[in-house]
Amino acid sequence: MTDRKKGIIALVFLAGVYASAGAVIRYLSFHFGLFQQIYLRTFLGLILGFLIFRKVNYGKLAKISPKEWLLLVGRTVSNNLAASLWVFATPITKLANIAFIDSLPLTAALSFLFAIERLTMRKAFWVLISFLGVFILSVKNLSDITSFGVGEMFVYISGFFFAFRNISRRWHSKLLNDAEISQIMNSMGMVFLFVVSMIAGESVGIPPMDPFLILMLLAGGFIMFANVFLTNYGFSVVPAVLGNNILNLEGVFAIMIGFVFYGEISTLRELIGGAMIIVSVFQMNKAEKA
Q: What percent of the chain has pLDDT over 90?
């Protein structure tokens, strides 16, 4: 299997993780402070990385150039600012608005803006089809997305930070591999979020832990680990525009989760939207190979 195919599979898996992340993060929000929740999940993701990446060469740290360190810090701050804004905005924002804003092709737009990829009519068309597919899938009533408040603004800004994190993976040198980049980002991110949590006056105490809360916290750690590592690995070998469309499969996985766990039957509108996303992924893959 080629690296490109592995990267595509990684991003497809990441889209599946995203589909289940909202429920976990919302549950944890009832028990932990905003930044506390994220730095605890980052810490658990870091520990998971240590357990999985046993051949990581931490001796490379001394060889990292100032430019590379600046990129690592920039991507870490971007990733954690995006996560913080998104988690903060979720409880105060309509789900339809979040789905609509998350579907905006910001990763694709930034890749064109920074000349990482060449804009063609064919690529623009399939990005548009993917966006329309998510729109049809997520927005049940146009009146749901007419309001635009603080929560919507934070989700929108977080999308730009996530998009920058995605496209900037290609700017790293060959010194560090994806596992090493991910571990460094999680290490710096945990420290960054802990300091912000202290400045914000959040408690350092841990609430009473029951088995289900522990399970949700571990799931949150896995989500953080997958988010950072799979993003680094996927966007290192998969073109950013194709990656943008693959991550929109989140809506398709949400339909599947609803059917398997809750017996929810998809409507014709949802099936059409999901089909548009899937077709856009296949066609964008062809366009990138052309």
A: 54
Q: What is the pTM for the complete model shown?
A: 0.88
For residue 96, give the nearest of 42, 142, 43 by alpha carbon.
142
Nearest alpha carbon to residue 137 among 161, 103, 163, 104: 103
- Could you give the C-alpha distances from 236 to 71, 143, 233, in angstroms and in order? 15, 39, 5
Residue 246 tokens read as 């693959």
3-class DSSP state of 174? coil
Give me the residue label for tokens 């001394």: 62
What is the distance of C-alpha 123 from the center of its chain?
Answer: 22
Rounded to whole angstroms, the Cα distance separating 149 from 218 reads 32
Count H helices, E strands: the chain? 12, 0
Is the distance from CB of 138 to CB of 103 less than 8 angstroms? yes
* Residue 95's pLDDT band (cuts 50, 70, 90): low
Distance between CA atoms of residues 221 and 219, nearest Å? 5
Residue where the block lists tokens 């506390």:
36
Contact by Cβ (8 Å): 67, 25: no
- Tell me the pLDDT tens digit for each residue of 51-93: 999 877 878 888 999 999 999 999 999 999 999 998 888 777 7
CA–CA distance, 101 with 99 (Å, rounded to integer): 6
The Cα 30–Cα 210 span in angstroms is 14
**SS3 (DSSP) at 91:** helix
Who contacts 18 (Cβ-Cβ below 8 Å, separation ≥6)?
Answer: 247, 250, 253
Structure tokens at 71: 């990129």
Phi first, then psi: what are they for 115, rounded to 5°?
60, 30
Give Cα separations from 90 to 136, 162, 194 (angstroms).
21, 16, 21
Other Cβ atoms less than 10 A from the Cβ of 182: the count is: 25
Report the SS3 class of residue 93.
coil
